[in-house]
Amino acid sequence: MKLDGVTILIGTTKGAFLALGGADRSGWTVKGPFCDGWPINHLAGDSERGVLWAGGGGEWSGAGVWCSTDEGESWNVTRLTKGTMDDWAANDPEFAKMIGWTDTPLPFAEQFSQIWSLGYAHGKLYAGTKPANLLVSNDDGKTWAAMQELTNHESAESWNPGAAGLVLHTIVSDPQNPQKLWVGISAAGVFATEDGGKTWERRNRLSNVEACVHVDHPAAPRDGETGHCVHNMMRAPGKDDLLYQQNHHGVWRSGDGGRSWDDITTGLPSTFGFPIRIHPRDPNMIWTLPLNGDSAGRFPPDAAAAVWRSKDGGDSWQAMRNGLPQESCFFTVLRQAMAGDTQDPAGLYFGTNSGSVFASLDEGENWQEVVRHLPTILAVEVFENT
């Protein structure tokens, strides 16, 4: 299997899938499932070497990272923590033989249950876990070390779990500076390091406290800070540390690497959503996919799907609906389930919990369903080999 052109990497509750679109991003062919049907929360890749990674796991299998060094033809797992199957196998030799189990100690024992996010930058592979830890590997995921300076941050005792638990779900790197890294933790907020992880700074401060009207919602901004339940975050292209985040309550922009945040929600139909996406070349063009509310069903407002685009850094917004379902649409798009390519015009892709992937090849103007009938989609990323 040769991944030429654009390939959509899809993580689901029943394994990883690849949707091959070729150089012209059409005629999408789905391959999979891979990773033995594990729940896959996130994927990453290095197109220069044809390497793919898929992170996930759960109560049964424990946590692990799968790796393919042949563009998805074959996959091997590095298990990191134990699961229920280990207890079964330890007490049932026949079951142990059937699954090929050995009693080799796992490196993190029972410290966490899942890998929730992956990030590859400057030759290092990072992984976020549930509960929230940040791991780093220097050998493509064969061995891992915990970045204890974040785990032991002075604020750690105050971190509260979001609805999905205490998860480190977003890893953002600086393409020019390997010492810089940002992570998002629900519900603890944004953390940043500028010295390769030796020290970490919590960055949730509002830029203008008076301009933010208090809202009676547990995830809303208060006490001079954004809500701590950050859902997704990206760094814009360019030399400036321009960040955008979709929060549990609002969409936010920071022009100083997260040290202060501006509310850019005005013009959107709701304050709630999961993903955020930035154009690969234009730092002012962003997309998000609002949902009707955290306790109102978590589907598109008025059950009519739209991706909302801003061309001015969030100062104004426009709904992009052409090709998306406009009646009886009750799907959810999760935090890691929206991605983009670097083609011209840029392509956008999002996956739904109803098993569909929608694609736009013209920066959101028009949409088409390119994959359907998959299991619940947890993550979408793009692998480009052009």
Automatic annotation (TrEMBL):
<dbReference type="GO" id="GO:0010411">
    <property type="term" value="P:xyloglucan metabolic process"/>
</dbReference>
<dbReference type="InterPro" id="IPR052025">
    <property type="entry name" value="Xyloglucanase_GH74"/>
</dbReference>
<dbReference type="InterPro" id="IPR015943">
    <property type="entry name" value="WD40/YVTN_repeat-like_dom_sf"/>
</dbReference>
<protein>
    <submittedName>
        <fullName>Photosystem II stability/assembly factor-like uncharacterized protein</fullName>
    </submittedName>
</protein>
